[in-house]
Automatic annotation (TrEMBL):
It comes from the Eukaryota. GO terms for cellular component: mitochondrion. Coiled coil: none annotated. This is Core domain-containing protein. GO terms for biological process: iron-sulfur cluster assembly. NCBIfam families: iron-sulfur cluster assembly accessory protein. InterPro entries: ATAP (IPR016092), ATAP_core_dom (IPR000361), HesB-like_dom_sf (IPR035903). Belongs to the HesB/IscA family.
Length: 138
């Protein structure tokens, strides 16, 4: 069960009704943006308790790879974004550093239909399929 208090999400774990754990914080529009198309498609595909997880991992043809999947698990370092239609997106603190300010979109083309990270201000360049990127170096 989830409740929100002062910008923090409080998680109650069913195995121990008295245990509450606080996620670091709720994500804001400065952290990530979500297009209406992505929010609507997410609402269509999630099952009860699922969220869209955004991760960044080493690898891919440009250096770092976006990993986007449905997940029921909430980790201690996860932060949460709630869309206007009530669906949720989670991202861990480390990954957020590589996508802060980016937009989550749902894209349909001749090759595939998928959630994608677009307009990432942290990315200097990316591969043509949009699944990996190289970060800007200061």
């Amino acid at each position: 069960m989830f409740t929100q208090q002062a910008g923090r999400l409080i998680v109650r774990f069913p195995k121990d009704a008295g245990t509450y754990r606080s996620l670091h914080r709720m994500l804001t529009a400065q952290d990530i943006k979500v297009t209406p198309k992505a929010a609507n498609r997410l609402k269509e595909v999630v099952d009860e308790g699922e969220r869209l997880r955004l991760e960044v991992d080493g690898g891919g043809c440009s250096g770092f790879e976006y990993k986007i999947r449905l997940d029921k698990k909430v980790n201690e370092d996860d932060m949460l974004w709630k869309t206007e239609n009530g669906t949720e997106i989670i991202v861990d603190e480390l990954s957020l550093g590589y996508i802060k300010g980016a937009t989550v979109d749902y894209v349909e083309d001749l090759m595939k239909a998928s959630f994608r990270i677009i307009n990432n201000p942290v990315a200097e360049k990316g591969c043509s399929c949009g699944s990996s990127f190289a970060p800007k170096l200061d």
